[in-house]
Amino acid sequence: MQAKDMNRVLYINLAKKAITIKQREDLFAEYLGGTGVAIKLLEEECPRGIDPLSADNPIIFAVGPLTALYPSASKTVAMFKSPLTGNLGESHCGGRSAMAIKFAGYGAIVIQGSSDIPVYLAIHGDDVHFRDASSIWGVEAYTVGRILREVEKGSGVRTIIRIGRAGEKLVRYACAVCETYRHFGRLGLGAVMGSKKLKGLVISADKSLEIPEAKRKEYKKVFDELQDVVVKTDAMEKYHDLGTSGKIFDLNKIGGMAYKNLASGRAPTEIARELSGENFAEKLLSRRVACSQCPVGCIHLASLREMYEPGYYFKTTTIVYDNEPIWATGFMLGVDRAEDCLRLIDTVDRVGMDVMSTGVILAWATEAYENGLITKEHTDGLELNWGDVGVYLEAIHKIVEMPNEFYQNLAQGVEHASSVYGGQDYALAFGGNEMPEYHTGIACYLNNLTGARHSHLDSAGYDLDQKLMGKEYSIEEVVEKLLKEEEWRQILSSLVVCFFARKVYTPEVIPKALDAIGIEGWTSEKLEELGREIHRAKMNFKFREGFDLDKLRIPKRIFEVPTPQGLLKEEELREAIALYKEKIGRRY
Amino acid sequence: MVKKVAALDDNKCIGCMECMFACSRRVGRGGFDKSAIYVRSAGGIERGFVIVVCRACENPPCAKVCPTDALREREGGGVILDEDNCIGCGNCAQACIMGAIFWDDEKNKPIVCKYCGNCADYCVHDVIDLVEVKAGA
Prior knowledge:
Strand order of the largest sheet of chain B: 1-9
Number of helices of chain B: 4
Low-confidence stretches of chain A: none
Largest sheet of chain A: 6 strands, mixed
Structural class of chain B: alpha+beta
Low-confidence stretches of chain B: none
Mean pLDDT of chain A: 97
Shape of chain A: globular
Oligomer: heterodimer
Number of helices of chain A: 25
CATH superfamily of the largest domain in chain A: Aldehyde ferredoxin oxidoreductase, N-terminal domain
Structural class of chain A: alpha+beta
Number of domains of chain B: 2
CATH topology of the largest domain in chain A: Aldehyde Ferredoxin Oxidoreductase,  A, domain 1
CATH architecture of the largest domain in chain A: 4-Layer Sandwich
CATH class of the largest domain in chain A: Alpha Beta
Distance between the termini of chain B: 14 Å
Largest interface: A-B, 46 and 28 residues
Largest sheet of chain B: 2 strands, antiparallel
Mean pLDDT of chain B: 94
Number of domains of chain A: 3
Helix content of chain A: 40-55%
Strand content of chain A: 15-25%
């Protein structure tokens, strides 16, 4: 294929079982790809005020100009209206997804409408099939992957994106599982797929991009330069050796890690040691794997050997672990054995829920149970106690199966559940999305509150907090730095490169990388300007859908537990939000 | 001695596909559809990866079934493809039980490893390398 073919958008209508393919050079020339193009498509496709679980909600998958052409350009951006927050939904995933979409011949895929029966999509290059998924409806995410792997072609050069039971049952924080061990984790893409009766997508690649003859030498040169940096920066060591969980012990040591629903910013040292990346690697790590075109290989798979029945009946399960899932199932729930974290992660993955949200919700429920706000009648007989893995495993299944009103409410997120039963002071959601682990200072919470996705990866506030430790700084400085970071990350996620390679893809090198594949005319300044524009477009979508920086709920708990920089003050955080609002301005 | 690409330790393979991309980059392509090396999971990523590449057989079955002598035995092991003589019958690909002869759908001709080692240059985890072909090995 030629460079222009990277601008093709595949529109799939699930109601009509029909497709169209359009050249959208207008979008890709101006907004690169990924997040930039996805927000524009969302503006086009998502009517104002719709129910996120109605047929009107579109799902957009977008890749970018650098996808699969340069090292660590390995991510796909999904955009939709989130059923969890009722606002902008954006989630990123690696695996084989980006490579497969790109070399199937698309810059983006837009899924419209709802199917009358369960379907999965088989997209083999230009061949798009709507296949009956009735026989795999109700099947867990892991097994669906195995079945589709056997029945569809494209082994090795395809992605298999699917939902588990949680997505089908419309759990608002259901995820989409990709290549078994990667996820469009946050904000409920799985529920949107479930509402469309879309069980999965198999996308296989059959094309390649012809690099213009005159650019070939330059392409190889720029590729080699970038490869060198990826391989030699600390990213490689940091993410390949122990993976994202490598920072767990130190984060706990400084007291920046929410423990037991943020009763404290630190777990006892022996627990932190047990749940550390070092311990997981030494005891349980079985294999490290990578997303396509990424030499780093940050994905860490553990092997868990368990006797499940007397008489030497053993099973060995492979379970993926990362920093956040260990936190959500371990620290947050007072679980103190690495193996028990794996059991919880495995079950959450099989039903197909966001593990971070699940951990936060169960932590809130445990505390609310302790306080008597909820009782055994609510919990359908379960006694929720910190660290009780067996009960948590049952609770996860009940969230999915929803045997009573309480679990129906839990399935809508902690913001909602706490609005029904109380305990909002310790319901740890920001902008409607359950929090990540960080309790590092003002920047991480400002990030949670103002980030367009309410994700710690929006502006990496946790990182800024740690950089500012022990230094003098003003609130204005924090706001400016976070905003600048979030704006720049729009470029990374429009190209689309993995945030772990953010130090590699500098404003100076990106124009060269684009030029070498025949996309000319970009400069550092132009990129920075576009980053700002994309960020504002996302915020304007949020404002259009009712997001209000003046009305953000901030759980009191975060002001009651010291961070590594002391106690946070609500006035200061509110002041920072007001400053942020002033800086971005608004159209709506 | 002639060389070939060999998988030294497939347990170290992380499935990044950099070798495949490198092979296609050689002919000015971004992607892997011109690649003579191929990596896929061994039936689910948890089982690790299978690396498929020409092992430069002695007495190669693929060359034996070529009706036009487009695919000839290379001295010391392996094969050399003369594309001009190839009629695209596909016998060679069928004869290779390793599945190491790939197909170029645009040209309707086989893709055969040239033993250049470009793929190995990009394998940062020391999974594959260019090694000498040893008789009887």
